[in-house]
From TrEMBL, chains A, B:
GO terms for molecular function: DNA binding. Residues 9-92 form the Cyclic nucleotide-binding domain. This is CRP-like cAMP-binding protein. InterPro entries: cNMP-bd_dom (IPR000595), cNMP-bd_dom_sf (IPR018490), HTH_CRP (IPR012318), RmlC-like_jellyroll (IPR014710), WH-like_DNA-bd_sf (IPR036388), WH_DNA-bd_sf (IPR036390). Gene3D superfamilies: Jelly Rolls, Winged helix-like DNA-binding domain superfamily/Winged helix DNA-binding domain. Keywords: DNA-binding, Transcription, Transcription regulation. CDD domains: CAP_ED, HTH_CRP. Residues 135-209 form the HTH crp-type domain. GO terms for biological process: regulation of DNA-templated transcription. Pfam families: HTH_Crp_2. SMART domains: HTH_CRP. The lineage of its organism: Bacteria, Pseudomonadati, Pseudomonadota, Gammaproteobacteria, Pseudomonadales.
Length: 216, 216
DNA sequence: GGCAAGCTGTCTGCTGGCTGACAGACAGCC
DNA sequence: GGCTGTCTGTCAGCCAGCAGACAGCTTGCC
């Protein structure tokens, strides 16, 4: 989410490699709000999302910045300074990082896929830095919507419908700003005819052209 | 630079593995200001810095944000949306990414090192995001100085001397702010007795305690 | 029905930091 | 000496966006 998805690791591997890699992984059910990992967490794990929705975020004092939402197929690691939390009931496959590294030694065919996943995560981070360092909130919002449009937009009555299932606060945390600012920007764009809101978390984009122009 | 260094890849490998990995790499001399890579550059390369100083930065319109400076031992890739530029005459060992990936398949012992390097780069990116999303410029500056202190500080007449070889503008670009703001913050810290400036790019930190407190 | 919880919209005041402009200090060079 | 280029310090003006407060709307529950 928020840009091209962290690539689906499993799709890129043949069945045998897949099975070998996932040896030692165990399935885990998460309830809504459950923390999978936090900075300085005891144990390093890698995990793959089977279902549900996982939020990866940074926190400092009482602010939070969402790095990404993971859905089915998403892969991440609980090391790093990020918090990892299920925002709804979810299922994940978890494995120990150290053990997975060891498995990799005897599974060279999986290496390029792994490196590509890491590379995609890195790209995502760089995009975020670019956003935070250079763009104002309106630019970030436009870029976010434009990116989601490419991934999730569906034609609907002459416009493009975007069902994000995110509320204003969620979007604000993805952009590193406040709910109030997102709210007023979205309404300004609505007034300008760029989009309209068709219920909570549902947007109809009427002028993708102008949206993209704003994301530069 | 700017936090723990992107780990020195070569140190972590035995001589044989090293030689195998660097097969096909070629040495290249860079003059000051030379661009090694830019977003949408034709060819993907990996490179290792032998000497000199390389700046990795993002650019947008007329602003630039420096992600890191690489010195001897540093490793990076020219893929990604970053620009890579020699800020002084430098020597690098360059290799083709695709070919290096292929080499890796038959060199499983190098995989953990590679993954660790990628992981360190990712950690650095996350630290930057944390800074940009949560901290004001003074906090970022304090954190930057504190980090450099740990890596480059040398006792000097009862204080800790920091020879950064960076001017105010360079620091501003590392922090995502302007030269003027950095200048006034440094002078405020000097007035408060936290540090003093002993020439361009040289700082004496008198109160590391209070510096750290400001970086939270 | 009433009540609470969650989501949204809007207003107001305040401020961190950007921008542009200018001046002083210093080094190297002709 | 004067000239140029590089680096630094400082000031005034301005504004994007934060923070707090409040109101309206829905939904679900007792």
């Amino acid at each position: 989410m928020h840009g091209p998805d962290a690539s689906n690791l499993l799709e890129r591997l043949d069945a045998l490699t897949q099975a070998a890699l996932l040896q030692g992984f165990h399935q885990r059910q998460l309830v809504e709000g459950e923390l999978l990992g936090s900075p300085n967490g005891e144990r390093d794990s890698v995990f793959i999302v089977r279902s549900g929705r996982i939020r990866v975020f940074l926190a400092f004092e009482d602010k939070e910045y969402t790095l990404t939402f993971l859905e089915a197929g998403g892969i991440y690691s609980t090391h790093s300074q990020a918090y990892v939390q299920a925002v709804r009931p979810s299922e994940v496959l978890m494995g120990d990082t150290v053990q997975t590294m060891a498995t990799l030694r005897s599974l060279p065919s999986a290496v390029p896929a792994i490196i590509r996943v890491l590379g995609a995560t890195l790209d995502n981070c760089m995009r975020i830095i670019e956003d935070l360092a250079f763009r104002d909130v309106e630019g970030r919002l436009a870029r976010f919507l434009d990116g989601m449009l490419a991934r999730k937009g569906r034609p609907h009555q002459g416009s493009l419908r975007l069902e994000l299932d995110l509320n204003t606060e969620d979007i604000a945390q993805l952009l590193g700003t406040t709910r109030q600012t997102v709210s007023s920007l979205l309404n300004r764009m609505a007034r300008e005819g760029i989009l309209s809101r068709a219920g909570n978390g549902v947007f109809d984009i009427h002028d993708a052209e102008r949206l993209r122009a704003r994301s530069q």
